[in-house]
UniProtKB/TrEMBL annotation:
Superkingdom assignment: Bacteria
Domain Transposase IS200-like, residue spans: 18-138
InterPro entries in the cross-refs: Transposase_17, Transposase_17_sf
Protein name, entry field: IS200/IS605 family transposase
One Pfam family this sequence matches: Y1_Tnp
């Protein structure tokens, strides 16, 4: 007899594992500077979506405001969350600084785009739709 989770379409499967791991991540800009505009948020989402794919993870929801971004990521248990976060922050920072040189003042943010800290919240207790709705309703700058 197969386990109950075997029939659940939301549960991803590996060779020896079934999992449904989601994390709500929040990254803020250095000194909470208002750096992001709509074009930067759109590009940031694309970069982070590609990074998640490289980690066999899915970026389920993405949104942000001028000084921070929210992500809802579905990731496999083989991925160390800290490694995923380091890649998301590091690669996106390098790409955004290179592509938006006129918008990102390196002196203002002292060569670092994101703050060294971040928020990571397990989504086990909250219904995923609640977290998705929260992220979706974050204000995007006009």
């Amino acid at each position: 007899m197969s386990p109950r989770w075997d029939a659940d379409p939301d549960v991803r499967r590996g060779r020896h594992v079934g999992y449904d791991l989601h994390v709500h991540l929040v990254f803020v800009t250095k000194y909470r500077r208002n750096v992001f505009d709509d074009a930067m948020l759109t590009r940031c989402e694309g970069i982070m979506r590609n990074i998640c794919t490289d980690f066999d993870a899915d970026l389920i929801e993405f949104n942000g405001e001028e000084d921070h971004v929210h992500l809802l990521v579905h990731y496999p248990p083989k991925v160390a969350l800290s490694s995923l976060v380091n890649s998301l922050k590091g690669v996106s920072s390098r790409c955004l600084r290179a592509e938006f040189t006129g918008r990102v003042n390196r002196v203002t943010i002292h060569e670092r785009f994101c703050s060294g800290s971040y928020f990571a919240g397990s989504c086990g207790d909250a219904p995923l739709q609640t977290v998705k709705d929260y992220i979706e309703n974050q204000k995007r700058p006009n």
